[in-house]
Recover the amino acids of this structure.
């Protein structure tokens, strides 16, 4: 058994080597390769049926990308502890591969093809999505499945002003441009990504840099194919054709199609008119042989496409009568639903999005789990495309790949304007498409921006989006760029691309190119026209809703985030969570604490502003540093014979000594204060040794007339270290002198030094019937 692999290597920059290998794994597939960068390894396989299914009229390509959790030494967190349906992230990567591969196959190739790409070894620093299409294309290259060209994809990001090919995960976190580019060695085929308001020329430079890197990857695949000895591609059955029937259909229907196309009718009227032509055509052709019957629909569809394309190119006339660079009529409303925290209805022609915004707490964050990393997202966008939006009846089976892809483009675009980590809300945006005739994803971006501002989310700028189309003719090189394309124009065009941005730059793009040889000059022109279109839309959005609400609506949860030093986190939480639970219970708020570096983020949520303010004041009191000389509203916590312990700030207590309760001399605390009573106290100082707080109530009271201040006791100074006090006899003098002669009481009863004397402070006359109080200075 020979399991010796065939491999090639190439450098993607900075000495990072990529290895493509075949001949060792999955040998029964039509094509199988592994692609390795660092410790990241992807296995890609391709299998194609030899014959198409009977009556097959479209190309059935299936692409699935999956990350095995074992690749990162992890066990899936699901109930079944195994990989299940593809996650949204895996669906998005599958779409990236599919969109790049599909144009490679011949138009008349109808055999079912399945491409599977699996991450079998994960490297936490390697982004596998940038290698997935390379692996899929390499598997096709070493197979006999008929493809016309070899393709690859790579990521290009701008980091610190420099374009980097396939940066690692740590580097990518600092990027202000992040694009995935798919291309052959001659032509750009696919672009998708996001940026922080980049300019059109920045995007062109990024595409050119990526294309240069892709040429190296394509060359490596060609080398691997040659080493494996692939001589050619398999033969496949050509679909039945009838040129005579095609000519008959053109003669009968061409003028009729042109008249409908030029009528500038509405979507359904136009669709009905085209359907009526089909009925007339079948009657005109009469009975046809069984093998020719499926060709009628195909030839009629191709004729419609040709007539409409030529009309647009030769006459600059579009299906709905607009100019090539004209945006359809716009209508925008906000705050149209009473209960959601934010809402907007955006209508552009026959496309309409009803979008809502919900504000939640950190407990509502979305866990996004992959093999390499698990992250929580505080910004969620869901896109729904019900069948009634196109006047159809279909099964409702949850969001498909199209919904996931369209929602992701809108999410990436709006995310660029979302507030940073200091914004504690979890935000969910839901776009329900109520009508669709071209670019519902761009309607989602516009409606989402309006709804977010209506909810009081502090977006600094509106984000708008527009879908563009391109029609070109190879025979004479003529081309036209269409702004705000219709669904039919999307279907018959050679390129469709969606651009989102603010007044100041591009924040998102998705581009699929269906023809070869698209020059950068054409792309520059298309991007310039797209800028004009999206600026037209964004200005209308500012007129409808110029800025975000200063605060959320009354029925939305209130939120405030407090940044504290890490050392105070324990004080806010309390032993066993006692303090934070008490705050939440007493104020009716929800509090979330997260440690971030050297700080703690305390997020407080409440449906009532009063409750929020009370909780905020409570937390701020816990973390506040008491200031000597400040007056505090305190609460008596307990009564002792020598004074009362009071809480003058949340979590901070001090002793209000009996001598500081009143100017009047008190013999007992009975009847003076009660537990729970509120009293104003002044912080007069802190004990330098123990750090205990010195509080006084009497200094806030008027001084009685004739009151005589007791003289201040002299400071004792630093008594020094006990071990360094020297000869005690020399320092203190003769014993008799120190004790005042023979009277060991020092000239009198020590009762002279109780509170009635000048010494003040502790009670030296405490007997067995009197509780001993702490030693301290009352003054």
């Amino acid at each position: 058994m020979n399991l010796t692999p065939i491999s090639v290597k190439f450098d993607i920059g900075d000495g990072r080597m990529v290895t493509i290998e075949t001949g060792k794994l999955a040998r029964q597939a039509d094509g199988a390769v592994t692609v390795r960068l660092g410790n990241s390894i992807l296995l890609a396989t391709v299998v194609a049926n030899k014959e198409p299914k009977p009556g097959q009229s479209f190309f059935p390509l299936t692409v699935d990308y999956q990350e095995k959790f074992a690749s990162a030494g992890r066990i899936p967190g699901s109930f079944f502890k195994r990989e299940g349906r593809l996650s949204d992230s895996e669906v998005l990567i599958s779409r990236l591969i599919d969109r790049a591969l599909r144009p490679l196959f011949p138009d008349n190739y109808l055999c079912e093809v399945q491409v599977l790409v699996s991450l079998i070894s994960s490297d936490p620093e390697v982004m596998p999505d940038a290698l997935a299409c390379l692996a899929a294309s390499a598997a096709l290259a070493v197979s006999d499945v008929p493809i016309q060209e070899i393709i690859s994809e790579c990521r290009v990001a701008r980091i610190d002003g420099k374009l980097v090919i396939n940066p690692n995960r740590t580097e990518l976190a600092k990027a202000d441009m992040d694009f995935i580019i798919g291309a052959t060695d001659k032509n750009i085929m696919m672009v998708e990504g996001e940026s922080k308001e980049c300019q059109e020329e920045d995007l062109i430079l990024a595409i050119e840099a990526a294309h240069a890197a892709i040429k190296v990857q394509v060359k490596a695949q060609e080398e691997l194919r040659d080493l494996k000895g692939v001589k050619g591609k398999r033969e496949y059955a050509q679909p039945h054709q009838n040129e005579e029937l095609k000519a008959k259909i053109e003669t009968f229907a061409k003028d009729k199609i042109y008249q409908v196309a030029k009528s500038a009718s509405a979507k359904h009227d136009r669709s009905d008119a085209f359907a009526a032509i089909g009925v007339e055509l079948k009657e005109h052709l009469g009975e046809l042989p069984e093998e020719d019957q499926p060709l009628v629909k195909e030839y009629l569809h191709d004729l419609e496409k040709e007539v409409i394309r030529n009309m647009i190119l030769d006459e600059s006339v579009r299906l709905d009568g607009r100019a090539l660079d004209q945006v359809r009529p716009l209508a925008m409303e906000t705050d149209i639903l009473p209960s959601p925290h934010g809402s907007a209805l955006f209508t552009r022609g026959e496309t309409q999005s009803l979008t809502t915004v919900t504000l939640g707490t950190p407990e509502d964050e979305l866990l996004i789990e992959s093999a390499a990393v698990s992250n929580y997202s505080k910004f969620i966008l869901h896109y729904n495309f019900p069948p009634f939006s196109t006047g159809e009846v279909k099964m409702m089976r949850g969001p498909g790949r199209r919904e996931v892809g369209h929602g992701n483009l809108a999410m990436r675009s709006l995310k660029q304007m979302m507030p940073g980590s200091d914004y504690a809300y979890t935000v969910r945006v839901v776009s329900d498409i109520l009508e669709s005739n071209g670019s519902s994803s761009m309607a989602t971006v516009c409606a989402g921006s309006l709804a977010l501002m209506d909810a009081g989310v502090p977006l600094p700028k509106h984000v708008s989006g527009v879908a563009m189309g391109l029609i070109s003719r190879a025979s004479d090189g003529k081309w036209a760029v269409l702004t705000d394309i219709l669904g039919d124009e999307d279907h018959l065009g050679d390129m469709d691309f969606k651009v989102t941005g603010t007044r100041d730059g591009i924040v998102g793009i998705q581009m699929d190119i269906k023809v070869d040889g698209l020059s950068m000059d054409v792309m520059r022109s298309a991007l310039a026209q797209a800028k004009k279109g999206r600026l037209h839309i964004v200005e209308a959005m500012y007129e409808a809703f110029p800025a975000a609400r200063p605060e959320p609506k009354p029925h939305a949860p209130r939120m405030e985030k407090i940044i504290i030093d890490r050392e105070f986190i324990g004080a806010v939480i309390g032993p066993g969570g006692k303090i934070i639970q008490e705050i939440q219970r007493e104020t009716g708020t929800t509090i979330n604490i997260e440690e971030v570096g050297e700080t703690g983020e305390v997020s407080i949520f409440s449906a009532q502003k009063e409750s929020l303010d009370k909780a905020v004041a409570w937390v701020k009191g816990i973390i506040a540093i008491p200031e000597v000389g400040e007056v505090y509203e305190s609460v008596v916590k307990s009564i002792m014979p020598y004074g009362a312990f009071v809480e003058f700030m949340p979590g901070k207590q001090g002793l209000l000594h009996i001598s500081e309760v009143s100017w009047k001399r008190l013999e007992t605390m009975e009847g003076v204060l009660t537990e729970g009573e509120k009293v104003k106290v002044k912080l007069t100082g802190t004990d330098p040794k123990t750090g205990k707080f010195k509080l006084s109530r009497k200094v806030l009271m008027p001084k009685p007339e004739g009151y005589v201040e007791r003289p201040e006791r002299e400071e004792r100074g630093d008594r020094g270290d006990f071990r360094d006090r020297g000869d005690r006899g020399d320092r203190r003098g003769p014993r008799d002198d120190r004790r005042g002669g023979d009277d060991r009481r020092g000239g009198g009863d020590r009762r002279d030094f109780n509170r009635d004397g000048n010494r003040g402070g502790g009670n030296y006359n405490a007997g067995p019937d009197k509780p001993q109080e702490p030693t301290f200075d009352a003054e």
User: Anything to note?
Assistant: The domain at 330-544 is CATH 3.30.230.70 (Ribosomal Protein S5; domain 2). Confidence is low (pLDDT under 50) at residues 715-779.
